[in-house]
Structure formats: structure tokens, C-alpha cells
Amino acid sequence: MRKNFDEFEYFDDIFDSAEDFILHNMIPEEATKEFKNGKMVIAENCEYNLDDYKTRLCNNVLIVGSVGCGKTRHIVTPNIYEAVGSYVITDPKGNLYKQYGDYLRSKGYDVKLLDFTNPKKSVRYNPFAYIKNTHDILKLSSAIVADERALNNQKDPFWERNASELLNALIGILYEMDKENGTKICSVSKVLELLRKGERPYEESKCSVLSQMFEAYKLSHPDSWAYEQFKKVDAAPTKTYDSVRATLFGKLVAFDTVELKEMLKTNDFYFRDIADRKTAIFITVSDTDRSLDDLVNLFYTQAMNELCYYADTECVDNRLPIPVRFILDDFATNCKIKDFPRMISSFRSRAISVMLMIQAESQLTACYGDNASTIIANCDTYAYLGGNDINTQKAISERTDRPFSEIASMPIGDCWIFRRGSKPVSSRLVNPEKCIEEMIRVGEREREAC
Description:
Elements: H1 11-14, H2 18-36, E1 39-43, E2 46-49, H3 52-55, E3 61-64, H4 71-82, E4 86-90, H5 95-106, E5 110-115, H6 134-145, H7 148-152, H8 158-181, H9 188-196, H10 209-220, H11 225-234, H12 238-252, H13 258-263, H14 271-276, E6 279-284, H15 293-314, E7 324-328, H16 331-334, H17 340-344, E8 352-358, H18 361-368, H19 372-377, E9 381-384, H20 390-400, H21 404-408, E10 414-419, E11 425-428, H22 433-449
Parallel strand pairs: 3-8, 3-9, 4-6, 4-7, 5-6, 7-8
Antiparallel strand pairs: 1-2, 9-10, 10-11
Helix pairs in contact: 5-22, 6-8, 8-9, 8-11, 8-12
């Protein structure tokens, strides 16, 4: 937990006074105790303690069920109602934020909406604000440019590799300037601005406005890392160089709108804030328009990496002061989080957990390949709400030691709960009506008070 005022470069944007700062720095201990006494609600008579030291289980949950079976209403909603720890919640239609945002505010939460479908209504998020060194630049470039399909098909990702090197150079020079001048100009819009200056007007010449800028920068910065990255790409023949630029433009085209560039220009929050005080971030992303998937996936990748880094470098026992829960709806369709199978294995020790919702195990396999089994194995709680996928039905039949026909014809509202170290439990989904009514009533009072 941070204890020094000097570490808050954005202090004035977040805290109204020193008293407010002190209040927020008192919260983690209370919130952690509240979390340990809290519960995870999965089904009727299936409520589990969140203290992973006491249970010796991780709090990762995999929820499997077909469209309309009640994953959000019957499981996500009761867990929001509990209001323990911090939340990062996928909210495809924006309804959860509208219905329960004020309720969480009444419980002391700092509630934010990151809206990729309507950036004008969103808080701002700058993925470049988290760069601390050149290694971070390499990771960020890889996350933006990497073509998973080329890697999975074992094709040589020549254009993606060179596009990454060009992006390294563009981000790198902005980062070096920020570091030298104490500014914060590194952003998507600035990267696109530099990229447009890279056009070579004459095929026989390698000269461009961008190359002239790098050469001039090199004169006063002979050890520039960004310059070294740029020369790797700039040495290519014009036709190859133009194809590399075109590849990078293709990766950044979804970022290139007036509204998104404004949204991505600066930061209204930092990921470590989520672990320092009770916070709920609702992520609204279209479940029909896939054009922003790369940006959304970048957000989740950065959030998880930054929280792990914060836990490892600044937190007592390498655990976040306030546990953070990611509730990810349509996980295998909206999200392809880079390195997620590796990260989920180490979440528990850092007080991070995920609640993943999918329609069938085959959906997870299609997205993550052989690593799907790693994700399933790292979820100590598994809820099956029914569906039409035969392979998933067979797996549940085998795990419950029940006839396939019984699993295939499960009544609506029935579910099977699997918890590591316990026998499978047949149960019914929780009726959320009472907690929904209370959350709406409390939220209305909160709005009236404001």
C-alpha cells in the first residue's frame, strides 16, 4: 500500500483534501477484513467463504450455461450485492452499471464506467500511461500488434514482427521525451501522428519526415533506444517499409476516431487505485461489433499485469491491499486476454480472482486451444447451468456420475456445482429478486441524496 503523498502525481485529481486521502488509505485494512468475512454466491445453499487462506481454495469461478440460462441475473447480481472487495465487471449492454452503480456508491465504492461503445460517456484510459521501461514498451507493442492466428498456424509473422518494431520506435521516442521533459504526451493520437509522418514520397529514397525527426533526435540523444528500433525498420526497401506501415495502420485503425482518441488521451484512474480503495469499474463493450476487441483485450491484459506488478513490488506479502475480482461475461467471445492461462495460475497468491462466464467448454477451447484445460483446472469452483453442447454435457455426466440423458434434460433453473475437495452438488439458482429490489431502492436514495 502506498504511504507517501509524493507518489500521487495525480493527487489533486483524485482526492479533495488530505483528510480524504487519509480516509482512503484507512479503507484497505477494513475492506480486506470485510472481504474475508464475505461470501461468494453461486446457488441455493452454495455460498462460500472468500478467505482463501481459510478455505485453501482459489476464488476463481467458471460458470457454464447457454444463452438466457441466468448467468448474469442469478449469479453476477447476487455477488455485486455482497459488495466486498473491488470489481472489474464486463457489462456488454451497460445495464449493470445503470442498475447497480449507485448502490455500490452507497456502499463506499468509487464507481467508474469505461464505455467503449460510447466513449463520450466514458472515463478516460490511456494504455501508454503504464510504461515504466523499454520492456513495458515491448509488451504493449506485442499486445497491440500480435496476430494470434499467424502464431497458431505456425506461419512466419514477418509483417507483425516488423510492425511491432516500428511501434516500439514510435512509442519509445514519445516515452523518452516524456521521461526527459516530465511531460505525458505519449498517447495513441501522438503515435498515429508520428506514423503518418513516415510516408516516403519517393520510392528510390528512404527519406521521410519521420526519418528526419529521428536523425535530428539522434544528434542530441546518441544512446536512444527508440532510434535503434526505428533503424531496424527504416533500413528496409520502400515497398517493404510501406507494407510494414500499412500493417501497423491496420492494427491501429480501430483507435483512429475522434471520440476514441479523446478517451485514450489521458487517464482518469490507475489500476493500482482498484486495489487501494473499494472500486467498481464497469466495462461496456458491444457484443455484436467486434472492431474494438483488440483494445478491450489490451485493457484486461494491462489491468491484470499491472495489479500483479503492484502486488509483487509494493504490497505486503505480495497481496493486494483490497482483493480484486474480475467478473467477465461472454469470456470466450469478447476476451482473448494475452497470457491469461499463465496469469490465472498465480492470481490467488496476489488476492486476485476471476469469475468467467461461457456458453460451453468448446467455446473456451476455440479461443484458447489446449490452454483451455489450464483455465478450467485453475477454477476451484465450477457451475454448470445447462446447455446444448454435447461435449460439455458428456463432461458433466462423467463428473457427476449421472446418466447423460439426465444432464441433457436438466430443468431450467437447476444447476450442478463443483468445488475442489467436495462432492458435486445439485442445486437451484438463487432467486435474486429481493437483492435486486434493495439495490435499486438504495441506488435511488443515493441519487436523491446527490
